[in-house]
Design brief:
This protein is α/β, with parallel strands linked by helices. It contains 13 helices and twelve strands. The protein folds into two domains: 234 residues, no CATH class; 94 residues, no CATH class. The chain is globular, with a radius of gyration of 21 Å.
C-alpha cells in the first residue's frame, strides 16, 4: 500500500512540477512586444494546401506584421488550389508587402509539406528564414517574439500551437491537448534542457540548414520537426521556444478529427523518440487514479482519495490556463477529462498501426528505415 501511495504521489508531483515550470517559462498571452536591438530582414516560407475556415484571416495577418523588411513566400503544389485566390486577395490589399506565390510539386521526400517548402527555401532572399504553417495566427509582433527568443546557443526557435476559438466540445478537447498538456510539457522540457522542435513556426539561420544539405536534410526523419530537433542537437546547439506561443484558431472539430490527429502525432513521436514516448503512458489522470482504486480503502476513503487526485490533476491545469490568458470555458474541465481518457488508448494504438491520414494522403511508416512512404490516397 505504501509503495502504491508513493507512486501516486510521485506521478502527481511530476504533473504539478511540470505545470509550475511551464508557468514560470511561459509569458502571459498579449505581453508587451520585445525590444530588439536590430531587425534583420526575414523570409517567411508558408506552405499552403486547400482553403480552410480561418485561411483568409491567417493569410491576411501574415501581410500585417510590424517588421521593417520581410518577404512572404507562399508555396502551393497545385496552381488551381482555391487558397491561391485568397493569397492574391490579401496581396492586393497590402501592396507594400513583399509577397509572392510559388507553384510546383518537388517530390524529393515522402513528406508533402516538406516537398512544398523546398522551392520557397531555395527562393528565400534573406539569411533568416521562418517556416510557418498556414494556420498560424501571426500577431503583428510575430517576428519580434521569434527573434527575441534567439540565444547564443540557439540552432532553432519554435512556437507550439496554442489552441484558440474552439467551436463545440471536441474542439475544446483539442484545446486541452494542445494547451495545458502538449504546450506545457514542451515548455517544461525546454526549460530543463530538452528542447523539441515544433513545425508550426520555425526560425532558422539559413546557413544552419544549407551547411547540412539544405532543407532536404529535414527529410532524414518521418517528421520535419523531429529531424530538425536531431539536426540541431547534433550541431551542439539547442531548440528554444518563444516566450508565449502563437495561436492556432480551431473552429469546429469532430471526434474523428481529434482522434486521427492525435493518433498521427503519437505515432510519429513513437517512431522518432521512442524512449520519451514510452514514458507518456504515465501522464494524465488515469495512472494515479487507477492506482488509487487498487488501494485497500473504505468506500469513503476511496471516494476522498479519488477527489483529491482529480483536484491535484485539474486545478493546477486550469490555473495555468487562466494565468496565461489561454482559452477557458465551462467545458474545459470536461474536455480535459475526455483528453485523459483518450490518451492511454491513443498511446496503445500508436504501437500497432503503421499508417495514418494527412491531408488526403495515406502515409505509411516504413518498416526498414523509419521514414514515411506514401501509399495511394484513401477515399475521403
Amino acid at each position: 500500500m505504501l509503495y502504491m501511495l508513493a507512486v501516486v504521489g510521485l506521478l502527481l508531483a511530476i504533473h504539478i512540477i511540470s505545470l509550475m515550470i511551464a508557468g514560470w517559462r511561459i509569458s502571459r498571452r498579449g505581453l508587451v512586444t520585445p525590444d530588439l536591438s536590430s531587425r534583420p530582414p526575414v523570409s517567411i516560407v508558408i506552405p499552403v494546401c486547400g482553403l480552410e475556415q480561418f485561411s483568409r484571416e491567417t493569410i491576411a495577418c501574415a501581410h500585417r506584421l510590424d517588421w521593417t523588411d520581410y518577404e512572404l513566400i507562399f508555396c502551393v503544389a497545385d496552381r488551381n488550389d482555391p487558397v491561391v485566390a485568397a493569397i492574391e486577395s490579401a496581396r492586393l490589399e497590402h501592396p507594400t508587402v513583399k509577397s509572392r506565390t510559388l507553384v510546383g510539386d518537388d517530390r524529393f521526400s515522402a513528406n508533402p509539406k516538406l516537398n512544398n517548402c523546398l522551392k520557397g527555401w531555395n527562393a528565400a532572399a534573406h539569411d533568416w528564414i521562418v517556416l510557418a504553417d498556414s494556420n498560424v495566427l501571426m500577431p503583428p509582433d510575430y517576428l519580434h517574439h521569434l527573434m527575441a527568443a534567439w540565444r547564443s546557443d540557439s540552432g532553432l526557435v519554435c512556437s507550439t500551437p496554442l489552441g484558440a476559438r474552439p467551436q463545440g466540445f471536441w474542439a475544446e478537447v483539442e484545446c486541452a491537448f494542445l494547451n495545458t498538456h502538449q504546450a506545457r510539457w514542451q515548455y517544461a522540457g525546454e526549460a530543463l534542457g530538452f528542447g523539441f522542435a515544433q513545425g508550426k513556426s520555425m526560425l532558422w539561420r539559413k546557413e544552419t540548414l544549407d551547411g547540412r544539405g539544405g532543407i532536404q536534410a529535414l527529410a532524414a526523419e518521418i517528421a520535419e520537426d523531429a529531424a530538425a530537433t536531431k539536426l540541431v542537437n547534433g550541431l551542439g546547439l539547442k531548440v528554444h521556444l518563444v516566450a508565449s506561443p502563437f495561436e492556432q484558431p480551431l473552429g469546429r472539430r469532430t471526434v474523428w478529427d481529434v482522434w486521427s490527429r492525435q493518433c498521427r502525432w503519437a505515432r510519429l513521436r513513437r517512431v522518432t523518440f521512442p524512449i520519451y514516448f514510452a514514458a507518456e503512458i504515465f501522464l494524465g489522470l488515469l495512472p494515479p487514479l487507477l492506482l488509487v482504486f487498487c488501494l485497500p480503502l473504505s468506500e469513503v476513503g476511496l471516494a476522498a482519495s479519488a477527489v483529491a487526485v482529480l483536484a491535484a490533476v485539474y486545478l493546477p491545469e486550469l490555473a495555468l490556463a487562466n494565468s496565461k490568458n489561454w482559452h477557458l470555458s465551462p467545458m474545459s474541465l470536461a474536455a480535459m477529462i475526455a483528453r485523459d481518457v483518450m490518451m492511454p488508448i491513443i498511446w496503445m494504438r500508436s504501437w500497432l498501426g503503421k499508417t495514418f491520414e494527412w491531408r488526403g494522403n495515406t502515409m505509411t511508416i516504413g518498416p526498414q528505415d523509419s521514414r514515411l512512404s506514401e501509399a495511394p490516397a484513401a477515399q475521403m
